[in-house]
């Protein structure tokens, strides 16, 4: 059975491989208006609700205790596979990036010993080649792999499916595209793409949330931070069982990453050694802090909120212009744009250090382990770049002409007071901030964690230099303020608090700074929230992903459910409320006509009682109708419903047939071919509809409807008039059901107890003893 699940995952990926939009389709999608809802079918809601139809119950009846135990074991085994897969993918990406960057800098440093012009040209060509490989992969092979992927994954776990974001093609494009874009020296990171990579791996096994946490754990070596990131930033609802599996997955990733790093310490991984995976040990930094330092630390929080909000707004405007004007010109424009950004970045990172005057090396401290200057061909602290003397270093080249990981390590470093001048830090801040704004949104995989850390640590170190000179205390470290600046910018841009705080503590290995990190995060988030939304929310709005945030809008308190649904009704048939609906027994030709005339994904099914009163008997999904039309096995010649007095036939369908592929378009009406005889036949929808959809009265406030949608992961809610009678009342104690030995049964991912105590099975009226469809409706149909 396990092999069948694995095979189904592989077949699902193959099935939807070709359904991802190609590069030309992606151009058309990007031409949509920014604020208008996406109506081209590229964004679709997910069906999290269990459809308890006849096929579902037939399958549940065949499952026993052994199947429940089997499902639990499989889920944990899949969590293990997700951790292993994500960890190995992260190892591959980091080894590749570090080796490409290492070869590039080593070769460039060796050549500039003879000619800076030749070294400059080689540096530009290597970066261009890497960035071109990345943008070519994205534009020609996997358009959905562009960007960080976090807004799309957040939308997916919020109930919105953007087609193509979790396919195998996207996974491959994300991995190799990240290697090219990060190795090519662009002002972006690989952490967001790693989250997307983990989600793609996990989607093949049906546990996307585990993949998100695994991606963060792999990117930062922060397993606890990964769990909290999935809880705080991407998921809409959470269960304790899911948390255990997510934690287990993150722990597996940490083991894989640590094992790979220990293996690479022997020199088997080329330039990838102790660095690579982002962790900056500042445990030997500032031991304590005084009350006077809280004011400049609070100022760092304010600066982070302001610069983070400005960054979000600038990237939104530039990305809007790209999607609606520049990228409409085709894929060639995207390639040229990325190459021009690469050329600009190379010129700035190589050229600006040439204009900077070198500084003399500080006195050597043997126990510090820091060498000044670095030998030719090496990069790290105290880089000797275009210096006239041997015992000099270029502070601007130390952070600009370097890998991002080493640049951050230099900015965080302790015992290196006065290593950087204020002029160099300010120059780097302005230029790198501008490059990050321009680069974000190009057609390459791009994360914003590391660029955000670099920006924040730069102005944080500037504030630290001022504090050192003002207070004149020996125990103040500039690197401590650089760390707080990094946290403040991430908080002001991404608006994360708990998960980001834990991640910063895990990657710096300094628990003493936890209260300070909390302080700057709270301040930066509060300041940023006063101006706009977080980075991922802004980018989701740009991509027309209708996220339901954790709190409804205030004006929803004064609106009712009827007010909201009234704007979306379309008159198609004679149903009194003008909703697109089906009768219980419907002609196949009518089904095809309605499916082709609109893009609705759910339809009420209407039947009539003996006195002619219209009665809603359930909800029919578009995807289920397409399955029935394609199989044709349920077509019937009679326009009458099936006789409930006859023995119930064995279902002709497996419940898995109605499950939509992960992040794929599934079956479309254009894929179905019916003959003229087929169109004249009928379908009885009763066995396949959802007989118990969620229903709210028309005068319920939109605030309550909003909370129902988000907390239950719903796709449809029926709005009905105020009911005229009550058949019962359920309280908390009615749900505390004793479990007996025959009642344990798992319904998909939810444990449901099916046998009730005798006193709980007493019904309030005789009519409710029969099922709704077989009893109430079936007996009302006559032969005529």
TrEMBL record:
PROSITE patterns: CBS. The keyword DNA-binding does not apply. It is found in: Membrane. Residues 574-635, 689-745 form the CBS domain. CDD domains: CBS_pair_voltage-gated_CLC_euk_bac. One of its GO terms (molecular function) is voltage-gated chloride channel activity. It is a multi-pass membrane protein. The chain crosses the membrane at residues 67-95, 115-138, 242-261, 294-320, 425-443, 449-471, 483-507. It comes from the Eukaryota. Belongs to the chloride channel (TC 2.A.49) family. This is Chloride channel protein.
